[in-house]
Amino acid sequence: MMSIITIALLMNLLIQTSESFSVVVPGDQIVAHVGSTVILPCWISPPENAEALEIRWYRHDQFSNPVLFYKHGKIQDLQEESFRNRSSLTQCSGQSGGLKDGDVSLQLEKLRIQDEGSFYCYVSGESTYDGQKMALKVTAVGSAPVLFPQPLDDGRMNISCRSSGWYPEPNIPWMSDERKVLRPGGTSGSRGADEMFSVHSWTAVSRSDAQLVSCSMALKTGEFREGRLNIQAIISSDSSDPWKALFFIILLLCALLGLVGLILYKYRHKLTGKKTAKEVVGDPNIEELRKHAVQITIDRERSHPDLTISKDCKLLRDRTGYIPTGEGFPYELCASGV
Predict the structure, then answer these.
(1) How confident is the model at residue 206 (pLDDT cuts 50, 70, 90)?
(2) What is the pTM of this model?
(3) How many of the other CB atoms lie within 10 Å of CB of 207?
(4) How many angstroms separate the Cα of 137 from the Cα of each of 34, 109, 149, 168?
(5) Three-state SS sequence of the chain
(6) Cα–Cα distance between 116 and 136 in angstroms, integer?
(7) 125 vs 232, more confident
(8) What is the pLDDT of residues 123-180, one digit of tens each?
(9) Residues in a beta bridge with 148
């Protein structure tokens, strides 16, 4: 009788041992960007089919309001509202067989800053259960820093650096082109309705401090953005401003003098009292002039080279393409003869 009881106890112990398992999660926190899709790995060991088990993912103190609840072979409607349509069970790797291999990993889509924190992976069977906690870190890399220079009365340059869209609030180191750390004059930050940070920092530098100044926005994860500004070029530009002003004044005076000269040239006849050739000759009567015509022989040698003279030196005409200007006497149309 005792041997039968002993065998029964051993069989029961063997059955319980075969049904026991433990939940395993990564030791390091999971880091993901805002708006991305992230997988929180979780599996049971030793591997076994988890399709018939109860799987519950939940936040701290939210066991009854889970992120995801799987039971009776399907995901139940019981769920925290902010994770609805954003959470699902997935494979933690391409080699995983999913639930059949004990992979109960959680996938979160459209990640939000509010998702940051601890997640609990809880798995239970008929006679055993286990759960583990893991951490999710959410980050957001903001815009590239924009640097603004502002001259100071003491000859130095105040450089401000601004950026937005960061989470968490970044560190803001200032560096010279020789990688020398520059001391900031101050730093401020504000948090928007989207929980992200907008930051502003500034520092004052002189010509001897650096040629290039860089402002970086850096997260502890190693992600960063950097902006640079050429201080020497700005200081040189500022020092040449008086010469630029003098140059533009001279340029303006030259333009005014040119305009005055153009006006004087256009109205020179009225100013000098001289008349144009048209005003002197008037409107000649050709028939009347022909009554006084005489025969002459044109002196080819003493005529204007642009005139065309006939072989018998009796006829001449202006060159082809000649266009009278209407100003002054047309000496190029004159010729001498006997």
Answers:
(1) confident
(2) 0.62
(3) 14
(4) 10, 14, 36, 10
(5) CHHHHHHHHHHHHHHHHHHCCEEECCCCCEEEECCCCEEECCEEECCCCCCCCEEEEECCCCCCCCCEEEECCEECCCCCHHHCCCEEEECCCCCCCHHHHCECEEEECCCCHHHCEEEEEEEECCCCEEEEEEEEEEEECCCCCEEEEEECCCCCEEEEEEEEEEECCCECCEEECCCCEECCCEEEEEECCCCCEEEEEEEEECCCCCCEEEEEEECCCCCEEEEEEEHHHHHHHHHCHHHHHHHHHHHHHHHHHHHHHHHHHHCHHHHHCCCCHHHHHCCCCHHHHHHCCCCCCECHHHCCCCCEECCCCCCEECCCCCCCCCCCCCHHHCCCEC
(6) 5
(7) 125
(8) 999 889 999 999 999 999 999 999 999 998 888 899 999 999 999 999 999 998 888 8
(9) 160
Choose between 222 and 5: higher pLDDT.
222
At 235, phi and psi to the nearest 5?
Answer: -65, -40
**Rounded-to-integer distance, Cα 28 and Cα 26, Å:** 6
pLDDT of residue 286: 65
Residue 30 burial (10 A CB sphere; 0-12, 13-18, 19+): middle
C-beta of residue 159 within 8 angstroms of C-beta of residue 196: no
Range with the poorest average pLDDT among 76-90, 197-211, 262-276: 262-276
From residue 50, give the alpha-carbon distance in Å to each of 69, 71, 119, 239, 338: 13, 10, 19, 75, 131
Output the six-digit token pair for 285. 């009567």
Give the CA distances from residue 176 to residues 183, 210, 230, in Å, rounded to whole numbers and listed in that order: 10, 5, 10
The tokens describing 220, both together, are 């502890």
